[in-house]
Amino acid sequence: MSAATGTPPDYITPAVRAIIGAEAPPLEAHHPVEASEARRFHQALMDDAPRYWDPAAASRYGGPVAPIGFPVHAMRRAEDEADPLDAMQQGEYDGVDRRLRPGLPEVQVPLKRLMNGGYEYELFRYARPGERIRVRSRYADIYQRNGRTGPIVFVVIEDDYETEHGERLLRSTNTIILR
After folding, report:
1. CB 58 within 8 A of CB 52
2. Three-state DSSP state, 163
3. Model pTM?
4. Element of type H or E holding 36
5. What kind of architecture, by CATH, is found in domain 14-178?
């Protein structure tokens, strides 16, 4: 709150407004979808639907498929990429990266706490073993609400997952809360 006016500061500056709609270049998963990874994923979900492992039961999909949320988890770092947790060794690192997706600009808001506000998913089709997955991320919106404890900034990110041939798989909309 401003001492003079009693109103909270406006963190949605022209610089923040300018990155709404910013898109990251497409990022391709380092490995194609593998049947063994899809198996571990559906087992972790405790979803034993035969469409994930039985070719006869999955014939309407052209063969076994990966579970709905699999594309999100296919975007792991490569074997030769540094572990992001190594940054914890730096004295100034607070554990929060304001580049909320690779390739997107940093959200310049001086709020220290970052929370996951949830995900919404829209499924277009299942990923299949052998396919490569790409993701395209963009800032769909950035806005501020003023709560009892002060300003809260909401960052809405859309991640569109597709195959290497441009076939849509999944849209994930993630809201990140900065306080």
Report:
1. yes
2. strand
3. 0.86
4. helix 35-44
5. Roll (3.10)
